Amino acid sequence: xxHSVITSHISLVLIAASALALPTPAQIAxxxxxxxxxxxxxxxxxxxxxxxxxxxxxxxxxxxxxxxRNMGSPSTPNIDHLAASGLRFDNAWAYxxxxxxxxxxxxxxxxxxxxxxxxxxxxxxxxxxxxxxxxCLLRGERYSTAAFGKWHLTAPSEPTPDCTPIAWxxxxxxxxxLGFQAQYCQWASLRVTSGSPCSxxxxxxxxxxxxxxxxxxxxxxxxxxxxxxxxxxxxxAYFAPQAPYSxxxxxxxxxxxxxxxxxSCSPAGSQHPESFYAALQAxxxxxxxxxxxxxxxxxxxxxxxxxxxxxxxxxxxxxxGYWPAGRGKETLFEAGVHVPFLVAGKAVNPALRxxxxxxxxxxxxxxxxxxxxxxxxxxxxxxxxxxxxxxxGQNATPVHDWLYAEKFSNTSAPPGSDxxxxxxxxxxxxxxxxxxxxxxxxxxxxxxxxxxxxxxxxRSDPGIASYRLFKNEVxxx
Length: 477
What we know:
Layout: E1 50-56, H1 77-84, E2 86-93, H2 98-107, H3 111-114, H4 134-139, E3 144-150, H5 164-167, E4 173-177, E5 187-195, E6 204-212, H6 216-229, E7 235-240, H7 274-294, E8 302-308, H8 314-320, H9 334-337, E9 341-345, E10 355-362, H10 366-373, H11 388-391, E11 403-407, E12 421-425, E13 429-433, E14 439-443, H12 464-473
Parallel strand pairs: 1-7, 1-8, 2-10, 3-4, 3-7
Antiparallel strand pairs: 2-9, 4-5, 5-6, 8-9, 11-12, 12-13, 13-14
Helix pairs in contact: 6-7
């Protein structure tokens, strides 16, 4: 198991003295900054190679110690090892709800283009069966692909919903659950191991369903680790367990260090944030198993993305107390959209490993970056931007001039920008526009917790250029 920990804070500058020996906290003076000039290295462009995407369920930046918002955060040595082995992005956004972010990862497009702007349920739209879905394009590059965990991209009303991760999502194999599970030790598992990936019809074979009595994060993690261990050629794995998630429960004691009342898998009631920390540590433990399955040389063979699908549940947000009360997932405040985002391994210049970047990045960027690693060309017109030049140290210019997120009903075509809730930010200012027309405007540099609404800026106010940019550039007007 990995136990390397790093808690430094920098902005596209290097703190580590050596890229070959990962530093320990004792070797790093907090806040110390060492500027570096990085030369392009052709070795970093030796693609294709293996890719692992880890999507944490309901995880904001105020729950990981490395982001410095909450010094009471639990230890997460394996996630910390990813940060020490890669580049941490400090200004990353996702959507405020899980299904919308999951669709972004599969398509490289904002929700107003996929039609998914909220949690998918009965009577809503599903992820489309586009040949440009991520796994479909990776199949064209001869990658083996598999998805593990919570899919949550299929409406239960589809004719044969069990087939959608294969037929529409494009994966060779799927193991996990189609939607959220209310129980962690009596949950409905789904295994699909063959079918017609990227087809127009919902047909698949070897569908197995069961009620699993074992802890969900453990089972899904073990399945992913086993699949990775048995691969021989290039592969892509999407690991999206329902963890840490909003259902407060008691994980098996072997997976965490929190003190909780109750037996394994029992409801944790109002034990916030300790039960949430325990679920996060359980996820971290299984990430350690994934790293073990990759082998000791994974930095030379694999690139790993780690990202949250949205912010913490509101009750966890309120218990931690960094963001104002009542915020968190499902809101367009930073507590709902500002998520951890790490990229570690082969695609990251060794001189950048263990550092952080203040560049604006988005969950939508995972799609073109993963395709670039596979040697595939992303489709024209997508919203994501490849991070490969940033990771290689060949370019430190902004990836995005602004970031965007939104929330709207999935029951019909996406509404225009005046009739849906959306938010945009640049490197300083942020605008939130609600579906009823109400707006709020914040200076994130002076007010990172959005405690002071500045109101619509006047002509001579410093934020007027940003405000006009947001109003003019909002996607899908």
